[in-house]
Amino acid sequence: MASSFSSNADFSRTAKLPRPPVMAPVPRMRVAIVGFGTVGRSVAHILTEQPSCFQITHICNRAVERKRVSWVPRDVQWTEDFAAIVTSDADVVVELLGGLAPAFEWVRAALLAGKSVVTANKQLIARHGPELADLARRRGCRLEFGASVAGGVPVLSGLQEGLAGDRLSRICGILNGTCNHILSRIETDGVSFEKALREAQKLGLAEADPTEDIEGLDARAKLTILARVALRTQIDPEEVHCAAISPVEAVDFAYAADLGCTIRQVSRAEVHGDRLLASVQPALVPLDSPMGRMHGSRNLVIATGQYGGETVFSGHGAGGDPTAVAVVSDLAAIGRSGPWQVSESAPIRRAVSAEFVTRHYLRFTVKDRPGIIASLASELAGHGINIDAVFQRRGFPKDCLPFVISLEECASSTLDRALREIESCDFFVKPTLSLPMLA
Amino acid sequence: MASSFSSNADFSRTAKLPRPPVMAPVPRMRVAIVGFGTVGRSVAHILTEQPSCFQITHICNRAVERKRVSWVPRDVQWTEDFAAIVTSDADVVVELLGGLAPAFEWVRAALLAGKSVVTANKQLIARHGPELADLARRRGCRLEFGASVAGGVPVLSGLQEGLAGDRLSRICGILNGTCNHILSRIETDGVSFEKALREAQKLGLAEADPTEDIEGLDARAKLTILARVALRTQIDPEEVHCAAISPVEAVDFAYAADLGCTIRQVSRAEVHGDRLLASVQPALVPLDSPMGRMHGSRNLVIATGQYGGETVFSGHGAGGDPTAVAVVSDLAAIGRSGPWQVSESAPIRRAVSAEFVTRHYLRFTVKDRPGIIASLASELAGHGINIDAVFQRRGFPKDCLPFVISLEECASSTLDRALREIESCDFFVKPTLSLPMLA
Residue A335's pLDDT is what? Predict the structure, then answer.
């Protein structure tokens, strides 16, 4: 027996030799691009560099005449009429419109017509992903959305395929480059939130209406998709608790630094039995942690698995070229495997809660007088919340004095109740800022 | 025209409706595990937790009786006879033997018999990967090796699939956890290389014969695989220049810190036209860079693409569970798509060179006397190499004095020539240590 383990027996003689399948020549993939903005142009650029693999059949955009460029092949049809694509011989529709209307109807129409769809549309996938994926399956085609989370960072494929063998229980990361840019700017240069936002708008890093980014709605759509793909949990984006980054001031970075921390917009989701804890909010993270070190507009995702521990992905989360890489990688994935995917275990519904148990940072801004800390301490103690430390930096005016209390671990709802009662105290000159402190 | 762009037309009526393909019920994948050490046991653990997807048919190991465990299903066949697997109904062989013999013959036999193979064997794939992949293609089965580089970090799938749409030109990273552990230990506690190595051996982090790790042979096998997958470049592992980490001393970390740097074993490969620059060697990296911040035995890979810029992957590169995650993810990938892969453009051969142009760190150890720096400076100048700065820390004995010269950018071969000439000077009491300084 032992000898056969290390023998050089000629296995080719004993082996059954099934006939290899015949490999058909691979045809070019016919791709229609819908939405011809920055990302659409980057996609077209990359595809035209690989004419043996891809043929662009259509470019569809509102007022398409002003979009025409000379560097795409002449046989591309420029159109405003999506119906022409639905009835065409395009194999795959690349949807880069963003938003829900008309993207939802159009993607549905493409799938119904048996065309695979690649989309970068996070709102569409967060809200209608399961329904559209189901339609794709029934129509024998593919729906791919690798570009919808973290742009060029291959996090969805990494989680879905590279970590398929693990059981993931936690996702956390920095999913919105605009917020990270603004917070980095306040941290580094001590500017106000408003100034940092205006600058980001000038640089084209923030929209004229920055609500989606600042209030966390952009990140929560991505977190919803990550929860589905990585944690096999189906939730609605509206169920995720969001808090805006706008109340964060330069002074908070100074106090955070006293605690060995900085502040980032953190998106996190964690499976706890039949519940999913999830939130998007500014949070204190250690200065020397992967999130703390993430400056500028890059994205970062940390996945925690039962077997593999923590795996970190980071890179350029937005921008035309990185997002286009994700789109073209999805096209390649469709080309590589068959038209349909083996059904995976369907994500399950879990109740969503933001009831994380963590340490907290409270920044109060008061008109100073004796007894304030004593009165806050006794209110907190009344809710069973323990104070860890009190920080008061010098150099602030007495009538608008920011100071910080760090708390030991408590449930966020307990703290919220305490803060609602404390709110009524007459010494406050600004709303209190409460941030979780992540280890 | 504009109206149809935003219309709510009922596309389902206009659409052609091809018949969806019939989805056959998915059978369980029959898996034979060959090599039942730490990784093999972890793989068996994960597979037995998913009995609806996987059935372990065989566990094959030398002296298999001492390997038997009670927690695998009773119908698993324990065997020392690989031929029994080749002629069995197993769909996939998981090869966890390591080394070239008998792994190469056995993997070949499995593929010839039409069985897909998943392997964690970096030496096998570095040396015989293309030949085995070709055989798999011809036999209509799959060869997957996600676990061969960076264990549980899904870097191969990320590069191959997630970044398929990009054109990657550069890979660099920390591919050997043992070396990174040893260097971190010297850095943090100032111990000698020998002591750090002995400790790593006691902890089970280094082999009794640590040559493969210390001299870079382990990392160069991984770099060879990364070059093939990410840079589409076929090289032989022996072509990659390697330098051992053993000459690095605690004093080098002190001098490196004066330069804002630390020292890591860095593996890197870069496409330059028809050449591939490649090396595995200790190098100075900035303290605040992703590589500089990587402590302990984790792995890190940074890929640089034409469109997506830098993408970073990191996580646990070794250990039973993380490696098993990669193996099971490969099994899932085989289950998910058809049995064969669409042929990708074959990797091309490129000449390999270690001729990186970088700044360098030179640590000389001398018996001090006047004129040493002048004489070294004039030797270097004679080869057109410019000195950037000279560092001399206090507190060392005059007869064994380490000091450092940092150089401006030059080609490594120019520097090697200069150092060979300088070598003969009579004031040296130890060989000179030359390390590249990476930005």
Answer: 81
Query: Which residues sit opposite B77 in a β-bridge?
Result: B58
Over 70: is that where the pLDDT of B341 sits?
no
Residue B358 near residue B388, CB atoms below 8 Å: no
Using CB atoms, which residue from A14, A154, A310 is nearest to B158? A154
In this structure, are strands A261-272 and A275-286 parallel, antiparallel, or unpaired?
A: antiparallel
Alpha-carbon span B252 to B285, nearest angstrom: 12
On average, the pLDDT of chain A sits at 90
**Chain B residues inside the 8 Å CB shell of A288:** 293
Sorted by where each starts, the structural domains of chain A and their CATH numbers stand as: 29-144 (3.40.50.720), 155-311+348-353 (3.30.360.10), 357-437 (3.30.70.60)
Q: Which of B403, B412, B410 is nearest to B385 (CA)?
A: B410
Residues B210-232 have a mean pLDDT of 95
Q: What are phi and psi of A422, to 5 degrees?
A: -65, -35
> E strands along B225-334, which residues?
233-234, 241-242, 261-272, 275-286, 298-305, 309-316
Q: Give the model's pLDDT for residue A11.
A: 46
Integer angstrom CA distances of residue A189 from A254, A279, A295: 11, 28, 13
Sign of the four-CA dihedral B332, B334, B336, B341:
positive
Which residues 6+ apart lie within 8 Å of A370 measured at CB?
A: none
Side-chain-side CA neighbours of residue A315 (13 Å): 32
| Encoded amino acid at B174, one letter | I
Spatial CA neighbour of A276 closest among A358, A357, A352: A352
Distance CA B435, CA B245 (A): 10
- Contact of A301 with A182, CB cutoff 8 Å: no
**pLDDT value at position A26?**
58
CA distance A288 to A303: 18
Active site residue B67: no
Would you state the pLDDT for residue A25? 53
Q: Is the ipTM of this complex over 0.90?
A: no
Contacts with B309 from chain A: Cβ below 8 Å = 152, 315-316, 321-322
Task: Report the alpha-carbon distance of residue A134 to residue A111 in Å, rounded.
Answer: 10
pTM: 0.86
Q: For residue A32, what are the β-bridge partners? A: A58, A93
**Closest residue in B to A86 (Cα–Cα):** B15
Give Cα B49 to chain centroid, integer Å: 29
Beta strand B298-305 pairing with B241-242: unpaired
Q: Are B162 and A158 in contact (CB under 8 A)?
A: yes
Burial of B48 (0-12, 13-18, 19+ CB in 10 A): middle
DSSP 3-state helix, strand, coil percentages of chain B (rounded to 5)?
A: 35, 25, 35
Question: How do residues A221-251 score in pLDDT, each as one tens digit?
Answer: 999 999 999 999 999 999 999 999 999 999 9
Residue tagged active-site, from A122, A222, A367, A430: A222
Position A4 scores a pLDDT of 44
pLDDT value at A18 more than 70: no
Residue the block writes with tokens 């592992």:
B237
B161 closest CB neighbour out of A82, A140, A157:
A157
Q: What is the DSSP string of B7-53?
A: ----HHHHS--PPPPP-PPPPPEEEEEE--SHHHHHHHHHHHT-TTT
Please name which of A131, A125, A127 lies closest in space to residue A144, comparing C-alpha atoms. Answer: A125
Residue B403: both structure tokens together: 């000091």
B271 pairs with which residues across the strands? Answer: B276
Most confident of A50-54, A75-79, A342-346, B13-17: A75-79
Give just the sign of the alpha carbon dihedral A281, A284, A288, A293.
positive
Give A92-157 as a DSSP string: EEEE---SSTTHHHHHHHHHHTT-EEEE--HHHHHHHHHHHHHHHHHHT--EE-GGGTTTTS-HHH
Task: Supply the DSSP symbol for A46.
Answer: H
CA–CA separation, A235 and B353 (whole Å): 52
A306: its two tokens? 């039962």
